[in-house]
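Pipeline run #58 for the internal structure catalog. This entry was flagged by the ingest filter as a single-chain record with no existing model, so it goes straight to prediction. Upstream metadata was stripped on purpose; only the residue string is passed forward. Reviewer on rotation: M.T. Logging verbosity set to normal.
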Amino acid sequence: MRKIKIKAFAKINLALDVIGKREDGYHEVEIIMQSINLHDQLLIFPASVLSLETKNRRLPIDDRNLIIKAAKKLREYTGIQRGARIILNKRIPVGAGLGGGSADAAAALMGLNELWALELPLSTLEKLAVSIGADVPFCLTGGTVLAKGIGEKLTNLPTLPAESVFLTKPPFTVSTAMVYKNLCLTSTDRHPDIKSIISVINKGEILPIAKYWGNILEKATFKLFPEIKEVMQCLSDKGFLVRMTGSGPTLFMFQPNESLNFEEAKLKLKEMGWWTYEGTLEGRGLEITGLKGE
C-alpha cells in the first residue's frame, strides 16, 4: 500500500488573446501561461472505492468536481475499477481565474497514474486532460508555456526566474462563460504582442513584457465588474505592473523596483475585503512531495 502527496500549482496568464470564435462554439486563443508557487495539495490513499474529501464546503465532491472526473476518465480509459481516497487541501481560491480546478485535475491524473501503477506516458495523460478542461494539459507540466487552439496546443518556453508576484482577488467570483458571452471583439481592440513577449522570455526576462502584454477579456470583465478596473488602475498608478489573469477576477502584479511597497496596498485591499497573496513564479505544474510504502 502507498500514499501519495502532490502539490498542484496555480497559474496566471502573462498574456491572453482571443483570435476569434470557432464553429464549435469555442474561442480560438493565444495565451502565455505561467505557473506560480501558490498551490493546492492532494493526499491520495489506496481504497476500495473512489472518494473525495475537502474542508472547503463550496466545492462539490461528486462528478461535478474535476478531480473525480479525472479519476473516472482514467478508469474508463484503462478499464480498471480501482478506488482511492483523495483528500484535497484547498489553498487556491475558487473561481479566481487561477486554474485551481484544472491543477487539481492534473494532480489527480498524475497521482492516480502512480497509485494504480498504470505507467501511462505523459502524452496519454495529456490526451485525457484535454477532455477534462482546456487548462488541464498545461497544469500537468506547467512552467512557462504558449497555448494555442482552445488552450490545448502547448509550446514550452524557457523557464523564467522565480520573480516575485503579488495577487489580489475581490470577495466574489466571475463566470468565465458570462465573460465570453459579453466579449465583443472589434477592430480597435488592443491585442497583446505575443511574439514580442516570447522574445523577452527567450532572453530570460520578465518585467519588460509589460510593454507588450494584455488580456483581451479585461474589457468584458471590467464592464460587468467596474470595481476590478478601479483597483487595477489604482495599483497601476502606484507604479505596479498590473494585469488581470484569465477571465478574472484576480489581478496579478510585479514590482518594477524595490522602492515600491506592497504592504501599504495590501492593507487597503484587505480593508476592502480583497484576498491577497505574495508569491513567486514557479517552473512546474505539479510536484510529488511524498510517495511512501505502507
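catalog note: The CA atoms of residues 41 and 89 lie 5 Å apart.
catalog note: The radius of gyration is 19 Å.
status: ready for reviewer M.T.
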